[in-house]
Fold this sequence. Notes:
The structure holds 2 protein chains of 2 kinds.
Chain A: E1 12-15, H1 21-32, E2 36-41, H2 48-58, E3 62-66, H3 72-86, E4 91-94, H4 109-137, E5 140-145, H5 148-152, H6 158-178, E6 183-190, H7 196-199, H8 203-211, H9 221-232, E7 243-246
Parallel strand pairs in A: 1-2, 1-4, 2-3, 4-5, 5-6, 6-7
Helix pairs in contact in A: 1-9, 3-4, 4-6
Chain B: H1 3-15, H2 36-50, H3 56-61, H4 65-74
Amino acid sequence: MVLTSKLLAGKVALxxxxxxxxxxxxxxxxxxNGAAVFANDVVEGxxxxxxxxxxxxxxxxxxxxxxxxxxxxxxxxxxxxxxAHSEKLxxxxxxxxxxxxxxxxxxxxxxxxxxxxxxxxxxxxxxxxASRIMMKQKQGSIINLASIVGVEGNIGQVAYSxxxxxxxxxTKSAAKELARYNVRxxxxxPGFIDTAMARSIPEQAFxxxxxxxxxxxxxxxxxxxxxxxxxxxxLASYVTGQVIGVNGGMLV
Amino acid sequence: xxxxxxxxxxxADSLGLPLEQITDDLKYHSLPEWDSIAHMxxxxxxDDTFSITLSTDDVINLSSFAxxxxxLTKYGVNF
Lengths: 252, 79
């Protein structure tokens, strides 16, 4: 993608779960577009080399911030650091998430707890503290990663799709609560995206999914990053409460 | 200005009430001025004034002026 101007110049963003896959793609696109980014992952040290490389490449400040989004206290401490370091936060991307597939009778309480803790509780915790900063600024953009299966459902993903459907609902509710403060909240619902997670499924299932995509190709992390860039930028200043499908016309 | 006066001023400004109405007995939802929207403004003003970030538990427990003083004590503010 070639852009003629840096859409996020002067903005400060926090992206969760960005050591690989979609999060990494969003991180690079935000850096390319001039944002200073607090890059989060739960694995200590996993972003150090990426942050250094992107800082050198794009001449923007990329700060690794290691915390577990499902731990409310760690989330609070992370946002305290953001406040102390930057005194503002323009964009939050809630990308951190886990996927565990299980047919309905096989969903254990442990699976449910893990999925909802990260995908739903983590998203809400980060929105709570980000919105506190953004409300004071009277501006901000929160972008939550949902999924096509959160809207359409999928075999073997009752629990996972439940978390992503929750993300759709919490996005729309937060958008309504925060609109009075000029804080926008939107979600992206990716389709089948070329990540390590997607490549791990059986070959036949992979081909079937590919055949269901109208644009005839698997999506890339950059495709999702493009949607996030739009929602983060002032181009989307009148867009809130939306769930944008970035899926190549995929049918589930 | 001492901490109590500072906090009273924050309450008065955030809730749009005269200073003399800010007493220990002032409770969340006891007046139309202290509704959930004003509560958010109050939390933001407390954060700013005392350079802290109230935790979510403290935001929920901030149910009166007296409770606010008690909570702020945990953050090292002396009354």
